[in-house]
Amino acid sequence: MSEPASISFGIAARYATAVFEIAKESKDLNAVETDLDALEAALNDSSDFGALISSPIYNREEQSKAVSALAAKMGLSSTMANTLALMASKRRLFVLPQLAAVLRDLIADDKGEVTAEVVSAKALTKTQSEKLAKTLKARVGKDVKIKAAVDESLIGGLVVKVGSKMIDTSISSKLNSLQNAMKEVG
Q: What is residue 31's three-state secondary structure?
């Protein structure tokens, strides 16, 4: 991890831990999780929101006003709204994507869940997704929440990441392996 990324992650981790502890103490974790869904959707859908949190053009006051208006419009919990306001006043909104990821991990860990990132050549059906979650649960011992993505370059098969473990059963990976083996022979 590069030094700036490491610093950003450290800042995000501190804010995420504080939000998590406040939400847990006030029994408000479900509201914070809903807030995270809304914030991540806004980050993915709105380039203006991304510019607001990362651009140095906006000063503290402008960021604070914009974030307060967004929090009210999105119906965010007071915990998340106050956190965003504090982050804006400290010029720390740029770590919002990392904060969301760390906070998701803390909430999932508290619930006894783990997230599996699954990349497949075609979109998984609901049945396939449930079967995979059940299989992974037996392997890791925790409830598994699947975050699915599609990458047609895999040709077939899956790439599954759970924590630091990765299982790659994609056809493209097998073809690359075969190609490397053939280079070594000839």
A: helix
Strands 113-120, 158-162: pairing is antiparallel
Structure tokens at 120: 């497949």
How far is 159 from 167, CA to CA, in rounded Å? 6
Cα 87 from Cα 64, distance rounded (Å): 9
Closest CA to 12 of 78, 65, 83: 83
Give the tokens for residue 31: 């509201």
Which pair of structure tokens corresponds to residue 76? 């965010």
pLDDT digits (tens, 9 = 90+) for 110-165: 999 998 999 999 999 999 999 999 999 999 989 999 999 999 999 999 999 998 89
Phi, psi of 115 (to 5 degrees): -100, 130
> Cα separations (Å) of 141 from 3, 79, 174?
34, 32, 28
- For helices 29-45 and 96-111, the axis angle rounded to 10 degrees is 140
pTM recorded for the entire structure: 0.75
Amino acid at 106: L
Give tens-digit pLDDT for 47-63.
Answer: 999 999 999 999 999 99
DSSP state of 152: G
Residue 1: strand, helix, or coil: coil
